[in-house]
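User: Sequence in, structure out. Go.
Assistant: Echoing your sequence, followed by the structure tokens.
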Amino acid sequence: MSGQKTVTPSAESLAASLTATKTRGLPPVHKWNPPFCGDLDMRIARDGTWFYQGTPIGRPGLVKLFSSILKMEDGKYFLVTPVEKVGITVDDAPFVAVDFEASGNGEEQTLRFTTQVEDEVTAGPDNAIRVVRDPETGEPSPYVHVRAGLEALIDRKSFYRLVDIGVYHDGWFGLWSGGAFFRVIPSDQLP
């Protein structure tokens, strides 16, 4: 026996641990490497809704708190505090970009996205936009990098608005932001 107290993961223990270590801005989860405590019955649906034990989490502040300690390692998602690390399920991307603001034109344009948990990110070389097309239907799924390998699915209304401001460049239809061009679809595949 190690003499170390066994930790049973729960949403309450995660929230309490994080509240005890509250810092300005996002917690330094990249510096935390606690032992894995098991999987938690928590899921983020494709629409950005967080569920705990099958029930939607109805407190936006709690969802925002949990989203601040989200970490991805080897393609798996975890909630991490200084003392515990628990696995959660993410259906698609952990965030949803629910709006954006465009400023400037052409190569000088910037696109600033806001997620469902009020994170803000400007697309550019460090925060790429990518579009994955379903091989059977051709339907696009657009994403923007938010932080540390975590992405936001760009919601449909925002994607339609992005398409309205898209441009052609080097045989592609896409978007400029932060001096980078993000390809959406080859120009010859558009009607």
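User: And one key feature?
Assistant: The helical segments are 11-20, 60-67, 156-165.
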